[in-house]
From TrEMBL:
Its main location: membrane. The gene is GLMP. It is found in: Lysosome membrane. GO terms for biological process: positive regulation of transcription by RNA polymerase II; protein localization to lysosome; protein stabilization. Interacts (via lumenal domain) with lysosomal protein MFSD1; the interaction starts while both proteins are still in the endoplasmic reticulum and is required for stabilization of MFSD1 in lysosomes but has no direct effect on its targeting to lysosomes or transporter activity. This is Glycosylated lysosomal membrane protein. One of its GO terms (cellular component) is nucleus. Belongs to the GLMP family. It is a single-pass type I membrane protein. The chain crosses the membrane at residues 354-380.
Length: 392
């Protein structure tokens, strides 16, 4: 029984806060615009703690991208030189001061939207998962002004776009959206996959809505590029659980780590959804390819990445593919949604739900109770028979 109680106590213990040790942060979200060109802007999320600051800088200049910067002071600031940033050589256009306070920095760039025809593909693990159509370069998208979607109450904003050149009118009534949200405290969203967030993190939800597919059973994918630290690519880890309370039917959590902790991380569940009310019936598998080194000139260029890191960088990329040839798919409702969490420090850790904890406690406690009851029965039975007095 004691061991069951001890395990129950351990299962209820969680570590939801990031490496920087800040359980409380002042989180703000604002748009930084070029006053000469108001449609060109950046989204800056700043999370200030007692001894550190996290900066997330999101942009749709070129392909959608985000900078992650962590400093060891609550007084670090972001500086943007728009003349440099929108020039052909944006190096130095974005800086975080003081530079010596920077403890970690990296970036993610969402470079291409892939489409495959899976009509004649029966192997769910096939690479690629069907006939490939020409990809959409996200650097060639036109994006709405982020100011129009800024919501300080929910600390969120949405980059919504469509191809500048769309000869087949596939996006005539559709769009690709990147919804960014910051958080002032720990918690979970209401909709699956309900990733556990903290004030050290922000969430990205990618939605493809209303675009006409080029095949009857089109699968879509997303190419993601990041900076390698040294000659190696970041590592990807899979975490498995016996609990699927927050994402029914999904017992896995994937995370990309930039080097050994403490560093940055990207975290997601390998699932996407084909309906707005995400649930088991609309869940689609999300396949992630291994990271591979790539040359910068092979990728659509992000001005904010070059502005902060310069032109000499090692890039790594990987692909995410949503759906399979059977089961729910984009073709159901012309809807696709996938979410990820981005942060600095130790990734949030899921504790087991109370239901699973209860089941485990009962499973461990029942044998102990049976042994205890059996021992009492034998003891009392032996005592009763030992008091028997023969007639003679």
């Amino acid at each position: 029984m004691r061991s069951a109680v001890l395990l129950l106590s351990l299962l209820l213990t969680a570590a939801p806060f990031g490496l920087l040790g800040e359980e409380t942060r002042q989180v703000s979200l604002k748009v930084i615009s070029d006053w000469l060109h108001p449609s060109q802007n950046l989204l800056h999320i700043q999370a200030v703690g007692a001894t550190s600051t996290l900066h997330y800088v999101w942009s749709s200049l070129g392909p959608p991208a985000v900078l992650l910067v962590a400093t060891n002071t609550p007084n670090s600031t972001l500086s943007v030189n728009w003349n440099l940033l929108i020039s052909s050589k944006p190096d130095g256009g974005i800086v975080v001061l003081p530079k010596e306070s920077i403890q970690f920095s990296s970036a993610l760039v969402f470079t291409r939207l892939f489409e495959f025809d899976s009509t004649n593909t029966s192997d769910a693990a096939a690479k690629p998962p069907g006939k490939s159509y020409p990809p959409y370069s996200l650097a060639d998208f036109s994006w709405d002004n982020i100011t129009d979607s800024l919501d300080p109450a929910t600390l969120s904003a949405t980059f919504r776009g469509h191809p500048i050149h769309d000869p087949t009118a596939a996006f005539a009534s559709g769009s690709l959206a990147f919804r960014v949200q910051a958080f002032s405290r720990s918690g979970r969203p209401a909709q699956p996959p309900r990733l556990l967030h903290t004030a050290d993190t922000c969430q990205l939800e990618v939605d493809l809505v209303g675009a006409s597919p080029r095949g009857n059973h089109s699968l879509f994918g997303l190419e993601v590029a990041t900076l390698g630290h040294g000659p190696d690519c970041p590592s990807v880890q899979e975490q498995h659980s016996i609990d699927d309370e927050y994402a029914p039917g999904v017992f896995q959590l994937d995370q990309l780590l930039w080097g050994s902790l403490p560093s940055g991380f990207m975290q997601w569940r390998p699932v996407a959804f084909s309906q707005k009310q995400g649930g088991r019936e609309s869940a689609m598998p999300c396949q992630a390819s291994p990271l591979y080194p790539t040359l910068a000139y092979l990728l659509p260029q992000s001005p904010i990445v070059r502005a902060f890191f310069g032109s000499q960088n090692n890039f790594c990329a990987f692909n995410l593919t949503f759906g399979a040839s059977t089961g729910p798919g984009y073709w159901d409702k012309h809807y696709l949604s996938w979410s990820m969490l981005l942060g600095v420090g130790t990734p949030p850790v899921d504790a087991l739900s109370l239901l699973v904890v209860g089941i485990v406690a009962v499973a461990l406690g029942a044998p102990a109770l049976m042994l205890l009851a059996g021992g009492v029965f034998l003891l009392l039975g032996h005592k009763r028979y030992s008091e028997y007095q023969p007639i003679n």
